[in-house]
Design goal:
Helix content: over 70%
Structural class: mainly alpha
Mean pLDDT: 82
C-alpha cells in the first residue's frame, strides 16, 4: 500500500509540474500574440491601411482566446491536483497520528503492567517492620 501511495504521489507531482509548464508556455504564447497584433497595427498605420479587423487579426484574436481558455483549464486542473496532494498529505498525517496513538497506548498499558508487577514483587518482600520509602 505504501509503495502504491508513493507512486501515486509522485505521479500527482509530475502532473502538477506539467500543468505549471503548460501554463508558462501559454503565458508566453499570449505575450507573442499581443506583440504580433501591435506589430500588425503599426504596419497597417505605416502603409496607410485603415485599422480594421482583417483575417489575420481575426486569426490572432482567435488564437488569443483559445490560449486564454487553455490557461483557465490548466489553472483549474492545477488547483484540483493541489487539492488531491493536500488531501493525500493530510490523510497520511492522520494515519500516522492514529498509529502513533496506538503505539503510545500499548506502551502505556505495558508500562502500567510493569509497575503493577514491580509493586507486587515489592509487596511480597516487604514487611511491616521494614517499610519501603519512596523517593519524591
Amino acid at each position: 500500500m505504501l509503495q502504491s501511495s508513493q507512486s501515486n504521489m509522485a505521479e500527482l507531482h509530475g502532473v502538477s509540474q506539467g500543468l505549471h509548464i503548460i501554463d508558462g508556455h501559454l503565458c508566453n504564447l499570449r505575450t507573442k500574440i499581443k506583440f504580433l497584433l501591435v506589430v500588425k497595427k503599426s504596419l497597417d498605420q505605416i502603409q496607410g491601411i485603415p485599422v480594421t479587423i482583417t483575417p489575420m487579426s481575426e486569426s490572432l484574436f482567435y488564437l488569443d482566446s483559445r490560449a486564454i481558455l487553455m490557461k483557465d483549464w490548466t489553472e483549474s486542473c492545477s488547483k484540483r491536483v493541489s487539492v488531491r496532494i493536500g488531501l493525500f498529505y493530510h490523510t497520511t498525517n492522520l494515519w500516522v497520528a492514529n498509529l502513533t496513538k496506538s503505539v503510545s497506548e500499548a506502551a502505556q498499558k505495558d508500562s502500567s503492567s510493569m509497575i503493577t508487577s514491580a509493586l507486587r514483587s515489592v509487596d511480597v518482600r516487604c514487611t511491616d517492620s521494614n517499610p519501603i520509602e519512596w523517593p519524591l
